[in-house]
Specification:
Length: 103
């Protein structure tokens, strides 16, 4: 794992001086190189579904982007923790990360 990937996973994109989209590209490349299903999502408005990925993975990435850009309420660890859980469960944890009331 390189230093950028490590920074994103430990601190989140903004703390590493990256946009969500930049972090998504780095994490997707790292995941593809490693053959794993971990990675960060893209800004919802910038994300185009990748037909090579399973539907659940595209959904997780889209929802991560929504979570980040719309400032959803979430558990400790924020949107990225929910994204990692989505990667494991293949389902977004709406009980932990969801739009705030009125959104």
């Amino acid at each position: 794992m390189d230093s950028e990937t490590c920074c994103i996973q430990r601190k989140g994109p903004e703390a590493c001086g990256l946009t969500t989209s930049e972090a998504a590209a780095i994490m997707a490349a790292a995941a593809e190189a490693a053959g794993t299903a971990t990675g960060a999502g893209a800004n919802a408005s910038d994300y185009f579904e990748d037909p090579r990925l399973p539907e659940w993975k595209n959904r997780c990435i889209r929802l991560y982007g929504d979570c980040e850009t719309q400032n959803w309420g979430g558990r400790k660890g924020g949107c990225f923790a929910c994204f990692e859980r989505c990667n494991g469960d293949h389902e977004w944890p709406f009980d932990l990360c969801r739009p705030k009331k009125g959104q």
